[in-house]
Predict the 3D structure of the following.
Amino acid sequence: MDRAALADFLRSRREALQPADVGLPAGARRRTRGLRREEVASLAVMSTDYYTRLEQQRGPQPSEHMLASLARALRLTGDERDYLYRVAGHNAPASSAAAAHVSPALLRVLDRLDDTPALVLTELGETLVQNRMAAALFGDASRHTGAARSAIYRWFTDPAERFTYPEADRDRQSRAQVAGLRAAYGLRGPRSRAGDLVRTLRKASAEFAELWERHEVAQRFEDHKTLIHPEIGAIELDCQALFTEDRSQTLLVLTAPPRTEGHEKLQLLAVLGLNRFSDAER
């Protein structure tokens, strides 16, 4: 671990960012160049003291998980992320870990979406980052670990996952989940993480195994869908998807036309979500 290089790099990347670059208000009488330390710490979900010690060459060696959070908070490119890992005394992420690094371009768009649910997904349905509205709609994705990080895995192994969709839509959603995984499997191959997930689900779910044999392939999201929220009920939303060039990540944005019931329910969801996060912070 090169403490001096790590500290200098973190400081330089922090000072190169402006609040608007990460979706934060500039505020009045701002004397700090770039972001404040506490802002980076909040974005990376760590204590300000821990982050400050890293910049002051006093902190312990960060874990790979912590480095991934810092890379995302500081909007690092792939090359910058690899450099961060190396000066912190770790090897650059393997391909599977690197795939979880969110494209800075997608993050810039996500940062500007605060009034409607938006999230970044992998091709296996893993939520890499979500805004507060998405967390209010779907729940906090960080609570899932292991194979359950994949929404495809949860769909076929956890009955509660299906309550998000009306009963009449669940069969179609099952087919869409399998077709999306088939597209990822065809792109990445049988020895990929997609292949591992296929093998796991064929053993865990008879429904998945049957649908897999249909060989349906599709990498898309429905333009219009109805989702069920436990407090608000059914919400009709339009769905837009923005893919990275290699289609390994997707920015999913859910909106409703103005003056519709769906739009009113999104406004209510924003209030519920804000209250929930405020209670958690207290």
Summary: The first strand starts at residue 118 and ends at 122. The radius of gyration is 20 Å. Residues 14 and 36 are 8 Å apart (CA to CA). DSSP finds 13 helices and five strands in the chain.
